[in-house]
Design a protein that fits this description.
With 305 residues, the chain is α/β, with parallel strands linked by helices. The chain contains 12 helices and 10 strands. 42% of the residues lie in helices and 16% in strands. The model has no long low-confidence stretch (mean pLDDT 90).
């Protein structure tokens, strides 16, 4: 079936035309995170009306515009020129033009450029209008099933390495609810190791290539992360959204690594169960109660045999 952009543009106009689209305003337009079918009709209508489309990468946005049959004047506004480019945007707004700003994917200013632009536009007494759409953050949270969460903390990308990375992760994990992280494929192994150090007892939901053809979603205990990542060679490609479940949602005893189980079994064969579980918990930071219950189940099975 051939895609008819004109039909879609007419549908967008019909569905969204009742909304007010004032001139001299900056429109923050959310774009799909992978699947172009997730573009909203209102977002399309704003792009139709825009005099200028400011964007993170003109090549990426050019492809998006062509997909919807649009040919627009574009202006590059990215992390390296956001402050200086804001002056050009403000000048266009002061002339009464509508300026739409889009990042490469998702919502501008959420782990993407846009915050400085919005702040400068508002400081100039001009209006910024949000045009919402798909979000990788809420998409991942919706399939995490974190029943212990009372909210979420969005961290985005951690610092790439060193003490800054460890400190940022340790501080973020103090949040009582879910923690949402972004991670590049070449650092997903590092994140798995970092989580084993700082949150070995937690569960995580890994979302790879959200909304795309080869989307993968898996919820598992932190000790199982390395095995899951290495199970398929293609998992070193594509962006990750990682939901670290709330601390109350501890991993089940059968999700402990073989190394942890071997240590627990060795100690519990020579020590009281409570003491053995306590020692393993101190060393691994895993939940003392789950370790105790696992060791107790072994003891009871031995007594019944």
């Amino acid at each position: 079936m051939t895609f008819d952009a004109n039909v879609l543009l007419q549908a967008a106009s019909h569905a969204a035309a009742g909304q007010q689209y004032p001139k001299g305003a900056l429109y923050l337009v959310a774009t799909p995170i992978g699947n172009l079918a997730d573009m909203t009709l209102r977002a399309i209508q704003v792009l139709v009306l825009a005099d200028v489309v400011a964007c993170e990468d003109t090549r990426v946005t050019g492809g998006l515009l062509r997909h919807f049959g649009l040919d627009k004047k574009m202006m590059a506004v990215h992390q390296h020129n956001e402050a200086s480019a804001a002056h050009q945007v403000i000048e266009a707004l002061q002339q009464g033009q509508r300026v739409a700003y889009v990042s490469d994917a998702g919502t501008p200013a959420v782990s993407d450029p846009g915050a400085q632009l919005v702040a400068r536009v508002q400081a100039a007494g001009l209006r910024a209008v949000p045009i919402p759409g798909v979000s990788s953050v809420t998409t991942a949270l919706s399939v995490a099933g974190d029943t212990a969460s009372t909210g979420f903390h969005f961290m985005g990308f951690l610092p790439p390495k060193g003490a800054a990375r460890a400190t940022a992760l340790a501080e973020a994990l103090t949040w009582p609810g879910s923690l949402v992280l972004f991670e590049a494929p070449h650092r997903i192994d590092d994140l798995a190791r970092d989580l084993q150090t700082h949150a070995a007892h937690r569960q995580v939901t890994l979302c790879r290539e959200l909304t795309k053809q080869f989307e993968e979603i898996a919820t598992l205990g932190v000790p199982q992360l390395p095995e899951w990542i290495k199970a398929q060679p293609h998992r070193d490609r594509g962006e990750f959204v990682v939901v670290v479940h709330a601390a109350g949602a501890v991993a089940a005893a059968d999700e402990f690594s073989t190394e942890v189980l071997a240590l627990l079994q060795a100690l519990s064969s020579h020590l009281p169960i409570k003491q053995a579980a306590g020692l393993v918990a101190d060393v691994t930071r895993l939940p003392r109660k789950a370790l105790y219950e696992k060791a107790l189940s072994w003891r009871q099975a031995d007594e019944q045999s």
